[in-house]
Amino acid sequence: MRISPLDIRQQQFTVRMFRGFDTQEVDAFLDDVAEDYEAVLRENALLKEQIAVFEERARGLGEREKALQDTLIATQRLGDEMKAAARREAELYAREAELRGEKLLEEARSEEAKLRGEVQGLRRTRRQLIEELRATLESYYRLMAAEFGDDAGDAGAKG
């Protein structure tokens, strides 16, 4: 059973004839207790609101992290598909070069070098994307650490 500030203010005590308390002193004390209790209730309500806001922010950050992870996976798959496509294309050019003879062999080698350059460019791009993603995640981590203090650091160390 919760006691409200109004309950405290309206509390009545039995007064005995010879050994009772000073009613004004009791009433003053009950008023002080009621005011303190009201302040605690207001602070509690405010803290609950703040917790709700922080929980909502945490959910938003979790959704962003999931989206970033999905993007990283999609980027990695795309890179793998592009590498596989480049390999298939290089093999096709190599077969054609064998059929055409020695003259066309030089053209196939030139094309293969071009494709390797593209694959290297894709790898560089992939590394850059990974580094940018890592920097973004670290930025969000620092943001969470700043927002939640040591609690975010402990959660990051566990995860």
Written description of the protein model:
Helix 2 (23-100) runs antiparallel to helix 3 (102-148) and helix 3 crosses helix 4. With 159 residues, the protein is mainly α. It contains four helices and no strands. The chain has one domain.
Annotate the secondary structure layout.
Layout: H1 5-10, H2 23-100, H3 102-148, H4 150-158
pLDDT averaged residue by residue: 85
Would you count the extended β strands for me? 0
Query: Which H/E pattern describes the elements?
Result: HHHH
Biggest sheet layout: none
Quick summary:
With 159 residues, this protein is mainly α. The protein has helices at residues 5-10, 23-100, 102-148, 150-158.
Defining key terms:
single chain; 159 residues; mainly alpha; 4 helices; rod-shaped
